[in-house]
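Isochorismatase-like domain-containing protein
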Amino acid sequence: MAVGVVAFPLLPLITRPNLWSSRLRRHRPTNHQVIEELKPGLNEMVLPKTSSSVFNSTNIDFILRSMNKRYLILAGCVTDQCVAHAVMDACDMGYMVTLVPEATATYSQQRQDAALEAIKGYCRMRSVEELALELLQPAVAAPS
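Tokens:
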């Protein structure tokens, strides 16, 4: 069974928008809830994230390596900030990264296009449809 890892940047931001500014991050409330649409599944971990890249403020690298994961599929917000940093860091750490551009977003189409252009050398990009077809194909055994 696949195990997913969900990294939320600042959990209250997805439950109570505009709760604080970046200057107040150290005063995070402890009673926040994840909105229903973003709740993790039974086999998904939640890693609160406090930096641009999930690799800098969580133990996700340790978790992924302990699970022998080498291939990552990334999506999220904000493409030209957190997503781009995560893609580049994952690549630098030796992971094989697939980005799903239609499952990312940022503040403008211009920023989206620029971010995708900037990180295209760090990852392969697939649409949701292309990725679904790849994942549904039977695995090809490596030659002996």
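The first helix runs from residue 54 to 57.
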